[in-house]
Input
Amino acid sequence: MPETIKNKITAGLNESQIRAVTFGDGPLLVVAGAGSGKTRVITHRVAYMVQRGVPPGRILGITFTNKAASEMARRVDEMVGAGVTIKTFHAFCAMLLRRRIHHLGYDPSFTIYDRSDSLRVVRRLCKALNLDPQYYKPGDLLDTISSYKDRLESPQEAAGKAASDWDEQAARIYAAYEEKLAENNALDFDDLLLKTVQLFREYPDVLARSQDYCRHLMVDEYQDTNLAQHVIARALQGKHRNITAVGDPDQMIYTWRGARMANIMEFEKEFPGASVISLERNYRSTANILRAASHAINFNELRYEKNLYTKAGEGRPVVVAGHYGAPEEASWVAEKIRELTDKNGAGPSVGVLYRTKYQSGEFERVFAKEDIPYQVVDTTGFFDRKAIKDIAAYLHLIVNPRDEIALRRIINVPTRGIGAVTLDRIGHAANQADIPLLDAVMDTKITGKLSSRAAGALAGFAALYSELSEYSRNAENVRDVVEAVIERTGYLASISGDEKEETEELLAYFKGFAEQHQNQNPDAGLTGFMEQSVLASDVDGWRPDTDSVSLLTLHSAKGLEFDVVFLTGVENYILPHLRAVEERDPGGDGGEGLEEERRLFHVGMTRARKLLFLTYASERMIKGRFEPTGPSRFLTELPHEGVFWEGLVDSGSRRFGGRVKKRKMRPDSGKTGGKRARVKKTPKSSHIAPGDIEPGGKIEHPQYGEGTVISVNNIGKKKQVKVDFDSYEEPLTILQ
DNA sequence: GATAATCGTATTTTT
DNA sequence: TACGATTATC
Output
């Protein structure tokens, strides 16, 4: 290739980035640390391939979220023009299945069920099998089913492995669930992957065609792939053996959704002859932030050794700040944000990160009071709203008349006098005749046997359905169909009171979305639109902005960056989250669960460009009770250099650095937990009594008593002092 | 069939 | 504490 083109593609890249971008054929793993410019590497690598003569249509890029897919598509289009396929695993599989799933006995108009649809199926099955929903919780059963499917395990295998009654019932529900979905001509999210694997395994010609198109496969966020996705990736590259997997084991935070560390850790074994390139230069954070984050993640055993470095300056120290409770923590954060924005009119982008969603409440309260603009990154998508799901159910039913879940959802919405009893009878009749529920509803021979009132109501619905379905067949575009459904069902008229306005807005938005989709995908039709609606949950496309503070969980912060990050609630029980640790290492010191929590901590820290604040409180309201929490063990894993401790440490710190003690149970408390002692309010001063402070010297602290100074660090006007107090196992670092 | 009362539960959430 | 989901009641 001519040097000039090569130069254009590699301009501004560092050496390992260039190696990754210009790597030739064969399997390649790019281990891309946080902030190492991996999106750049991927887009430039695609451009490089195109320059080398690979037709864009033969390059397939896979990402994890729609947001990532559209962002990457945009950047690739900019560099090489359109033509490269960039999709999520699920969208890619859906596309393939629409064309090929007839082999497996499904109709190409299949519905994709989201979690709430699946949950309805499971609930119905539990009821049918008379399972106690208190013990056999539908949500838990569904999670279990889903993880079987992630691992490509059939109901039979699940039954074989069952080690308890609960497992056996779960396997039974799994089998029934699969049957029900097939009956409904529906696939859940896992099926999109699973059926693709099945298709590849059973129909070599289908696989061969896909392989032919896949001269180069690029998979981003490989650390978060589950087994099914890994198998698909392996199958796709089977012919040309060109796979570029990009990921960072230190950012694997989705084990609970089936992510499998082995996929990336054993990449070289899975793809023989693979090369590995590490991107270690960080372009995002200051040296202090990067040092703190690297130091912390180094406590993990299960990782690729990486040595992140930056050429950025030291920056300001990472600040660790303790508070009495969550309200104080929130006020402190608000105060800091005020300081940051007061100084230089245009404020930095600020992210407030927390482990659990409920922690957002305290910040919202304080920010509202203090007039700090904020936005909570809310993951409850637009398509989860009831009104949208209702209208969508009509649309699903039009596309796929066998979709019983959709039918049951809307047959009496708006209310039209079709109650549970009527539905039950129709259901039985449909079962007897072995026909889809909708066919029974539409069959006057069947409905005629019911009371005339019920028969009339059903006839009304049947007429409505025929009308809508007829309309849809002849309609020019999707927006019109959506509008027709809203109008002719009289949906809005049935909503009363204060919800009306909101519903109106939602539905208007839905129409707008349909119109937009129509313009962008003129040929996709109603089926394509419905698929998009289910798969794209982040339609409203949130992005960080500098006009307001972003409040978000650590999980949703992945892939984002902010000038200033407040990583809050870095506490025992919260940041290594108690359940995450106990669930996966009962009675132990943490194990894999702890390592994943530590990765989460690391992900949070590495979101920061310039300033990083880590905050904790001594107690926190959990499940309606005040629980003593105190500084997280992760805080003891920070380096001494470049970390500034502020406003420390009260009685919660007794566990500082130590393992989490089992709390005493009251003898009479039947359930888990028991009553916990309330933390006494302690004075918040952490200053050491005056006197000479130097290494080796003895000091007396008003709260911690006597101790020996280990080291002194001058930071600005203050001193950071590490002290070995007689009453604590681990040395504490305090600020003077 | 709609509303009120009660119950149970609270980690993370994309596709 | 606070919310959603299920159940009880009219």
User: Anything to note?
Assistant: The CA atoms of residues 482 and 576 of chain A lie 46 Å apart.
